[in-house]
Design brief:
Rossmann fold, NAD, EC 4.2.1.46, binds 2'deoxy-thymidine-5'-diphospho-alpha-D-glucose, dTDP_Gluc_deHydtase, 7-stranded parallel sheet, binds nicotinamide-adenine-dinucleotide
Amino acid sequence: MKLLVTGGAGFIGSNFIHYWLKQHPEDNIVNLDVLSYAGNLENHASIEGNKHYRFVKGDITDKEVVFPLVEDADIVVHFAAETHVDRSILDPAVFVRTNVMGTQVLLEAVKEYGTRFHHVSTDEVFGALGPNDPPFNEDTKYDPRSPYSASKAGADHLVRAYYHTYGIPMTISNCSNNYGPYMFPEKMMPLFISNLLEDKKVPVYGDGLQVRDWIHVDDHARGVDFILQKGTIGETYYLGGNAEKKNIDIVKLLLTYLGKDESYIEYVKDRPGHDRRYAIDFSKATRELGWKPEVAFEQGLKEMVEWYVANQEWVARCKSGDYQAYYDEWYNKTLKK
Ligand code: NAD
Ligand code: DAU
């Protein structure tokens, strides 16, 4: 089988490619990635020279690049996106360009060649839950509240529209917050781990009582595999980690793992439009695919911390270049009290 993976140099795409080559060593993967600030070919050092893997540098909005690759593939697994909510607050336009327009270019190619298409989406498209609401489920309406989540919602709607209008063979997954190795150190967990390793404070937004449902990235990769093997065309599956945690409780775990005290917490202003709580009901994926998350949260988090301790040069390279300028702008405009 030939897979075209978009965004395979990012956090989840990298882990997905490693997972796939291990589970399906005879399959061939082409990784199409533009190498934005979040894309990193170092993530694939361990598979360099693998004749089943090929990298193509290119933009998913570029038809000339996308069409021949889609024609040559049996399956497209679409991860490529702009993904950081904070960046979408500073500069929404690139989110619309990549997440909406890029997805539409891929859909045109899929329509042309009839290639199987899996769209990787997020639980953020459903907005925020109150403390006593049931987790997001098949009845939850779309209610995106950040430019990032609105652009992902737009992409989800386009994928479904191409299914209903043109009959493209598609599936969608909406997944909760991933964690694990190769996560770019602008997202909460790796930012906090790397700050603590650099003896810096961690900026906790608002009161720190926001809740996310954390899933290990390997469980996400396995979930996508199950959908590709057993999913029904036209269907959407929710994937979650069964691990609802308050941000502040994660911070306390990280402080303990890294031998720091609570003086390392800096309460900053809240993220504008900050969604209070996410949680996912993944019972359809269990019922129809036999999938459920397997990695226990505290064990997964401990392993993630160990990975970041062992890979501080990787982190330092991520935090070089334009990173500091972006972060200073974000901090000074939005977070500073
Ligand atoms: P990431 O930011 O780490 O990686 C995104 C990758 O896409 C990068 O390698 C980047 O270079 C590439 N890319 C960006 N624009 C591109 C373009 N125009 N053309 C080609 N490649 C481009 O993101 P991630 O966290 O790995 O997320 C991957 C997917 O999973 C996204 O679609 C995201 O919405 C979804 N998702 C993420 C999470 C999460 O917790 N991180 C949860 C649910 C769903
Ligand atoms: O739910 C899935 C989504 O999870 C994905 O679709 C997104 O691509 C991914 O970035 C993630 O979005 P979040 O906004 O939940 O992740 P982030 O790591 O940015 O923030 C997690 C929580 O931590 C959130 O409540 C905001 C808070 N936070 C974040 C940062 C960066 C802080 O308190 N301080 C921080 O410095």
